[in-house]
Design brief:
elongated; 14 strands; eight-stranded antiparallel β-barrel; about 250 residues; 4 helices; mainly beta; two-stranded parallel sheet; Porin
Length: about 250
């Protein structure tokens, strides 16, 4: 009997499969997109840190509805400046195969030149507008976007989305109205600016904070495994086109 009891553990061990548990330092987690066929578990998302640049503008045809331009009065009217801005910023992106969460901060200084703005009226009066100069006008923008991605090739995809943010405005919009001079002659707004460029007649009230509305379409190009480039365009309060590039991890 004692011999049977001693041999029982050996017999049982020979009939059971061996159970192997990995050591803690062997349990790894890969980022999304890691090749399948391994025992490692995949992280359900990937991340990006990107730099972005954007050129933004409002078409002249929009302002033509409300303001005179250089072709007015048989071409004798002053040319109206075109409105534009240039933005640079940084992004953090968290994404999976389809969904992209994009969080950004950017600085967007004004690129619109100084010039004469004359609103349309009936009957026309071409001398009662304002000469406008921008002093340090810029915005600091922060926001979040969602993008839905459609992968067409391993290296190429399309993205569509939008979002909201806040735009903090700095600087002034200075104006010169023109009027009667000290010697009794009428000085038109642009002449008033030329005579006293450092002494505006006043400033236009502008809000210090505005909502930022984003609607965009983009093309993403994957460069190797750790970099991507995105070309996009859409609405960023202004119409824009831009480039985003960064690292993927």
């Amino acid at each position: 009997m004692s011999i049977l009891l001693l041999t029982l553990p050996v017999a049982l061990s020979q009939g059971l499969p061996e159970l192997n548990l990995p050591a803690p330092d062997q349990q790894t987690t890969n980022r999304a997109g890691t090749s399948a066929g391994t025992n490692d578990s995949q992280r359900p998302y990937i991340q990006e840190v990107n730099l972005r640049i954007r050129y933004a503008f409002i078409p002249d045809s929009v302002f033509d509805l409300y303001f005179y331009n250089g072709d007015t009065d048989n071409g004798n009217h002053l040319e109206r400046p075109s409105v534009s801005a240039f933005a640079t910023g940084i992004e953090y992106v968290i994404r999976n195969e389809e969904a992209n969460g994009i969080f950004y901060f950017e600085y967007m200084p004004n690129m619109t030149g100084d010039g004469y703005w004359d609103d349309k009226e009936d009957p026309p009066n071409y001398d009662d507008g304002d000469y406008i100069a921008f002093s340090g006008l810029a915005t600091y923008n922060i926001g979040a976007n969602y993008g839905f991605e459609v992968r067409l090739q391993p290296w190429f995809s399309l993205m569509f989305g939008g979002g909201l943010g806040l735009s903090i405005i700095t600087g002034e919009v200075q104006k010169w109205d023109g009027g009667m001079s000290a010697n009794g002659t009428y000085v038109r707004p642009w002449e008033s600016y030329e005579e006293n460029p450092d002494n505006p007649d006043g400033t236009h009230d502008i809000p210090s904070v505005l909502p930022m509305v984003d609607i965009f379409a983009a093309m993403r190009f994957s460069i190797a495994e750790n970099a991507s480039i995105r070309l996009e365009g859409g609405l960023h309060n202004l119409i824009y086109g831009g480039l985003t590039a960064g690292i993927v991890f």
